[in-house]
Amino acid sequence: MDSWGSLDRNRKLTEDLTERTLAAIPSEYGKLIYLASLRDVASGMYRHEGLEALYSAGSVQEALLHAHREVCSRIMEMPLATQEEDLLICWKGFDVEAEGLIGNWKESEAYRTLMPFGLPDYMRTLFCSNIETLLFVLESDRITTQPVS
Questions:
Q1: How many helices (H) and strands (E) does the chain have?
Q2: What is the DSSP string of 20-74?
């Protein structure tokens, strides 16, 4: 009976995370950024006080890691054109113009911290290559659409 109770708690935890928290974020990149922000980069541990008030820390850790990997996988399965649209939707939530975001992302390479831990090297390389390509395309689009003075 205890394992059924545990299964039910894990199902409720997953529903809380996906149907309440992540469903409110309109883009996959936004979800990825959010999930990455819940992880301590040094320890790799995720923290979410609201979920931890209702569920065990171990269950929350497992659910957040799983969600982080799922969102990252969904992004990597998208064609680059769809990733570009999704990233632009995500960036609408920031208080910085796209040009500033492009420059910041290129210089800091902060996108490297968005990946969940445990990805194989080839997936890490592909993820970074995709982001770098998107930044190049977005920057090129901005340059070619600038009015000539």
A1: 7, 0
A2: IIGGGS-SHHHHHHHHHHTB-TTT--B--HHHHTTS-HHHHHHHHHHHHHHHHHH
pTM above 0.90, yes or no: no
> What stretch of H or E contains 112?
none
* % pLDDT > 90, the chain: 79
pLDDT reported for residue 72: 97
- Which residue, among 117, 114, 20, 120, has the nearest Cα to 75 in the 3D structure? 114
Task: Let me know: does 121 contact 85? Beta carbons within 8 Å.
Answer: no
**Cβ pair 111, 131 in contact under 8 A:** yes
Q: Are 75 and 32 in contact (CB under 8 A)?
A: yes
pLDDT score at 5: 55
Domain boundaries, the chain: 2-144
